[in-house]
Amino acid sequence: xxxxxxxxxxxxxxxxxxxxxxxxxxxxxxxxxxxxxxxxxxxxxxxxxxxxxxxxxxxxxxxxxxxxxxxxxxxxxxxxxxxxxxxxxxxxxxxxxxxxxx
Length: 102
Prior knowledge:
Blueprint: H1 2-23, H2 31-54, E1 55-56, E2 59-60, H3 64-77, H4 82-98
Antiparallel strand pairs: 1-2
Helix pairs in contact: 3-4
């Protein structure tokens, strides 16, 4: 069953990509839609990041994970190097968990 699901998802993914290539010249998007599509992609990515930062399965992840994400977000906003952002976020979450904060 797992192999069938993987194959179905692969076929669906490649079909969508092929459809984009084949329909590029035939499909004309309005100016409004062309401006909204990048914002929709950013909103979807933000929702995914927020869900991953706050949830562990179906329950709240605790305070340590969102605190690490917050530290990483602030450092990324301040244009710190990527390695520093990742290490600081992981260290923040690890230290909070070591201190007993869930």
